[in-house]
Design brief:
The longest helix has 24 residues. By secondary structure, the chain is of the alpha+beta class. The protein folds into 2 domains: 73 residues, Glutaredoxin (3-Layer(aba) Sandwich); 127 residues, Glutathione S-transferase Yfyf (Class Pi), Chain A, domain 2 (Up-down Bundle), CATH 1.20.1050.10. Strands 2-1-3-4 form a 4-stranded mixed beta sheet, covered by helices on one side. Helix 1 runs parallel beside helix 3. It is 52% helix and 7% strand. Bound molecules: glutathione. The site of glutathione (GSH) has 11 residues, from helix 1 and helix 3. The site of glutathione has 11 residues, from helix 1 and helix 3.
């Protein structure tokens, strides 16, 4: 089978799909789309004009990261979803929770200190729910289901990585309030598939994008080597 992923370099939803491809050792091509000038061929296959799109065998275009990873999990080994239907449904529910939880990736859009605090309070609510879910899963994780990496891990790693990048620039002390989330984040940030699924030196790239936007949060960036 042939897979091509259409991407923006910083997109957390593409990251989710790329982690699953990496985790399964699937060879794939990746094409980076210019967000500001999306080509006609891309717009014609992406109903919301969004990435990711996964082109399968040069003919079928799939959109929505959740649908893409569910498909990949059905057609390739090793299976990342749990075998038990109840566990699988539980994982799917948490995978759907990610779009709201992705609020934590938007700290870099804060307009001022008060706005950042509002965004942190919002993120705090999600971290607390996630802490509860991780605690219920019992001891012995590094991952959401315990020892085995799952689609749920692939769902949260991108958001947790971007939160961590912001935390490096401007420590928020937020994730430290939630030890299970913090430990999970630490395990995910070391997982080779998570690291290989983004461009090289991704944190620097993420900082460069923040710098280029020049918003309030860019004050926390170290001076650019190019400046
Ligand atoms: N629900 C979608 C979200 C995809 C998404 O929001 N992608 C962003 C990039 S990170 C995008 O393409 N945005 C372009 C736009 O909104 O015009 C998924 O899970 O695939």
């Amino acid at each position: 089978m042939k897979f091509k992923l259409c991407s923006f370099k910083t997109c957390p939803w593409v990251h989710r799909a790329a982690i699953v491809l990496q985790e399964k050792n699937i060879k794939y091509d990746i094409e980076y789309i210019d967000r500001d000038y999306r080509p006609d061929w891309f717009v014609s296959i992406s109903p919301h004009s969004k990435v990711p799109v996964l082109i399968v065998n040069n003919e079928t275009a799939l959109f929505e990261s959740n649908a893409i990873v569910e498909y990949l999990d059905e057609v390739t080994e090793p299976r990342l979803h749990p075998d038990d239907p109840l566990d699988r449904a539980h994982n799917r529910a948490w995978n759907d929770y990610v779009p709201t939880f992705s609020a934590i990736t938007h700290l870099n859009k804060a307009e001022d200190e008060a706005d950042l605090m509002r965004r942190c309070a919002h993120a705090d609510g999600y971290f607390s729910k996630l802490e509860g879910a991780l605690m219920k899963r019992g001891e012995g994780r590094p991952y959401f289901n315990g020892q085995n990496f799952s689609l749920t891990d692939a769902s949260y790693a991108p958001a947790l990585m971007r939160f961590t990048f912001f935390d490096h620039l401007h420590p928020l002390g937020l994730i430290e309030k939630y030890p299970a989330v913090r430990d999970w984040r630490d395990s995910l940030m070391e997982r080779p598939s998570v690291l290989a699924a983004v461009v090289p030196n991704f944190e620097d790239y993420w900082c460069d994008v923040l710098r280029s936007k020049g918003g309030w949060a860019s004050q926390f960036l170290p001076p650019s080597a190019a400046a």
